[in-house]
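Lecture notes, unit on protein representations.

Consider one protein chain, 89 amino acids long.
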Amino acid sequence: MRCRRQVSGARQSERRHIADFFCAAVKLIVELDGDSHIGKEAADAESQANLESLGYEVPRFGNAQVYDEPEAVIEAVWQACTDRAVDRG
């Protein structure tokens, strides 16, 4: 699986979304919510809803969770990838 950072939602929106990790094969976008997301929760929710309407799954993880529980984050991302691969297969 390859990761890219830009996801275009131009089909339904003129805005582009910069993703932390993106896997086109399973339409998975992983968001890491650090300090730059503080105060932007409404915009994040709107962006996530738009991406989900395009068929993407968007799990979100806070930076603290990534640092404190990296194995759990990796497992959650792996599970999302495998679940979506099976669903699409």
